[in-house]
């Protein structure tokens, strides 16, 4: 994982947001590029929440509150991510939901912190994000330490893997979750027989897969996103590699079977989504998924529910503070105790979700199948 850096608490914003009236909330995700389907999924979650907030006729400091979504595209690129962040700061947004990837979320967080604008990431899992000392950063899901470590343990204890190979895409997310997976394998008594890397735009994996095939792994773990994992699965089949394929939340999407084509067999792919509900909480999530499909004509990919809840949590803090000024509503955001479609949401002193869940999944018949929810 990248080295952590200490940072001063957020400074006061240059210009406070209005108490009522139009309240601008920013959202940033990759709505172009290879994982645009994930970025659009997230953005749709934000739009759904904004529409519901405006239909609720909320008032803040005695004035009707009208929420406006300012959506930006970071293309999963750190440079474009910081440019998008600066654009939202210049637009004087009251808060930001995003980014999707750790590699864009972390550099953008400094810009928001310097401007005193709270940021809730629905999906960035690299631990560094909430360990920089910034006062206004929050994470809606469990981090890579929990996610990668749990998958490493599962590979050895449940899939009975003795020899494991690891590939990562060298992004902050991919490398970070792969590192934690490797630690989890070692702690459970497994052996990592090879570690290779690619990049998040690669399409040819024959060289690294051929190298790993010779090591006869029982499991191949990929730290990266579904747009790369799909073609990788196809090439594994072409090379006659029968190992189980594992990954984090980046590959755990509804789109993966389409991206993999005939390269995916039932019960071959195992992944973990950083989040999850069980018991009575399932009712709210199932309703959200049904409403989302009705509204947008497509299934939830991964994190739209966490974006939706992020927007609602931020607005709830503004209502509680009777202000959309970040200086005034940030204390309420820190005290969040909110029942959303993703479960009960509250944050620890760093801004991490308390009692974060993981949902272990496999794919059968081209559909995600939940194996268990772990806290």
Domains, number: 2
Name the quaternary structure.
Answer: single chain
- Rg value: 20 Å
Strand order of the largest sheet: 8-7-9-10-11-14-15
**Helix-strand makeup class:** alpha/beta
Indicate the CATH topology of the largest domain: Rossmann fold
Uncertain spans: 1-18
Strand content: 15-25%
Roughly what is the average pLDDT, rounded to an integer? 92
Specify the number of helices.
11
Helix amount, in percent? 25-40%
Major sheet attributes? 7 strands, mixed
What sort of overall outline do the alpha carbons produce when their principal axes are compared?
A: elongated
- How many E strands? 15
CATH superfamily of the largest domain: Response regulator
Order of helices and strands: EHEEHEHEEHEHEHEHEHEHHHEEEE
CATH class of the largest domain: Alpha Beta
Q: What distance lies between the first and last C-alpha atoms, to the nearest angstrom? A: 23 Å
CATH architecture annotation name of the largest domain: 3-Layer(aba) Sandwich
Give an overview of the whole structure:
Helix 10 (304-321) crosses helix 11. It is built from 11 helices and 15 strands. The two termini are 23 Å apart. It has helices at 36-55, 78-90, 102-115, 144-157, 172-187, 206-213, 226-238, 256-260, 281-296, 304-321, 326-334; strands spanning 21-29, 59-60, 63-73, 95-98, 119-121, 137-139, 163-168, 191-197, 219-223, 244-247, 269-273, 338-340, 343-345, 358-364, 367-374. The protein is an alpha/beta fold and 375 residues long. The strands form 3 sheets. Strands 8-7-9-10-11-14-15 form a 7-stranded mixed sheet, covered by helices on one side. A 6-stranded mixed sheet has the order 2-3-1-4-5-6, with helices on both faces. A two-stranded antiparallel sheet has the order 12-13. Helices cover 39% and strands 21% of the residues. It is elongated. The protein folds into 2 domains: 21-141 and 281-354, Response regulator (Rossmann fold), CATH 3.40.50; 144-273, 3-Layer(aba) Sandwich (Rossmann fold). Keywords: Amino-acid transport, Signal, Transport. It comes from Hydrogenophaga crassostreae. Pfam families: Peripla_BP_6. Residues 23-364 form the Leucine-binding protein domain. Belongs to the leucine-binding protein family.
